Amino acid sequence: MKFPAAQSILLIIAALVTLLTWLIPAGSYHSLSYQATSDQFQIESQDSTYYVKASQESLEDLNVKIPLEKFTSGAIYKPISIPNTYQQLPSRPQGFIAFLSAPIKGIIEAADIIFLVLIIGGLIGIMNVTGAFNAGMGWLSKALKGREFLLIIFTTLLISLGGSTFGLAEETLAFYPILIPIFIAAGYDSMVGLASIFLGSAIGVMCSTVNPFATIIASDAAGISWTSGLDGRMIIYIVCMTVTIAYILIYARRVKRNPANSLVDASATKSLSYIKEASEGNIVRLTIRLRLILLIFTACFVIMIMGVSQWDWWFIEMTTVFFAGAIVIGFIAKMKENEFINSFLQGAGDLLGVAFIIGLARGITILMNDGLISDSILFYASELTMGMNKGLFVNVLFFIYQGLTFFIPSSSGMAVLTMPILSPLADNVNIGREVIVNAYQLGNGLFNSINPTGLVLASLGLVKIGYDKYLKFMLPLYAILALIGMIFLTILSY
User: Do 200 and 155 form a contact (C-beta atoms < 8 A)?
Assistant: First the structure.
């Protein structure tokens, strides 16, 4: 039997989630959000909306143990759940029509990231016609000869630093076309490139140190300073990244010594549009014009990273950079109008399957929200930990966060939804709330390294690696990192 394609896996999961909306009781917490224009808190439930004065007294009355300035400064900008306000609601099971429409809603809701992927695909199509990829790979294969392992170390480390400091995640989808050919030219398979890029980001986010979309939002929502527990997070980052890089290097060495040890289908790798020409042996000389084209292509990624980390850019600005880069490269390559348009559309079409994967994953979240089961799952998870001793409590919470991540893959979404509910539980077992933040980061980040509702299937689609092949590669590392996380959390709780 052949393992299902990524799109089929997501449709099966969507069908199971649809079934869960019939089995799990519907319910929700009241939500609290700050309205800057009126300087009030807006409190929303399923059947009412009202406003209270934005003051510390109001927060204390609501049992929200978060300083007022976290809301007024914009540090907490999404609605948060109010503790002890969960209420069961009339069941809202999702039917067959909802199941069919969820992917469409997901594609519409995820349009920003989908257009980023399609525009990058168009840029790749332009690059393929110029021959710049081909020439660059030929040059790199000579430059890295004998030192190919440095490519793995530096790529994984740099991307992980981005994940740990500013939440580099979705943006890494743009890196595969430029980096995978380099790994192939260095004598590795596409799994090594995927692991260096995807796991660099995933494990970096898992061990976030100052990531505003994970550490800072979660700490704010827990009512503590984001510097609490920073030393411990830096230690776990060093340990987990050392283990991850060593694991990738061991696999890479096996593949380099004997390509038969590769888990990847070589024919699928050769069919990738951005390495097809080079795999056929058509090496092109790296001329000054091609060097300039590669420089502009690389500059697009550098500008994107600077924009996200320094100038508060998001998907519209990132997509614009790549679109502008495609036009500039087309002019430098002296491409005719029809050639440019056809190459751009061909490249975008090659990544259309990835775009559908992103939309399908988002549709699953929509099904849960429409079926009112997300808050119910959170409520039962919090009830499960009541009365536990601190060591058991923090490890159970670590696995609860892994389970919740299947339903809420977003690190920022997970933080604002769960921290106000779960962080007060730390007071009951006499541990610091920063331990809850660490359990959230480790659980959410670790499960997202294999989470089919997260970025993994979209990333696999970009390199044409099956989910089953990836799991075979990843599960031993997953077990090692889970054990490290449990030991780390246990030590912190005492």
Answer: yes
**CA-to-CA distance for 215 and 213, rounded, in angstroms?**
7
Q: What angle do CA 183, 245, 235 make, to 5 degrees?
A: 145
Specify whether the CB–CB gap between 42 and 389 falls below 8 A.
no
DSSP 159-172: HHHHHHHH---GGG
**Alpha-helix runs per DSSP H in 351-389:** 352-370, 374-384
- The dihedral region occupied by 44, where left means phi > 0, alpha psi between -120 and 50, and beta the remainder, is beta
pLDDT at 83: 82
Q: Are 113 and 358 in contact (CB under 8 A)?
A: yes
Which two structure tokens, joined as six digits, stand for 283? 């090496």
CA distance 252 to 246: 10
Q: What angle do CA 25, 31, 32 make, to 5 degrees?
A: 170
Q: Which residues of the chain have pLDDT under 50?
A: 277-281
User: What letter would DSSP give residue 78?
Assistant: S
Q: Is 370 in contact with 94 (CB distance < 8 Å)? A: yes
pTM, to two decimals = 0.73
Please write the tens of the pLDDT for every residue from 426-453.
Answer: 766 778 888 999 999 999 999 999 998 8
pLDDT in tens, 24-66: 899 988 888 888 888 889 998 877 888 888 888 888 888 887 7
Gap between the Cα atoms of 208 and 239, Å rounded: 13
| Distance, CA of 307 to chain centre | 18
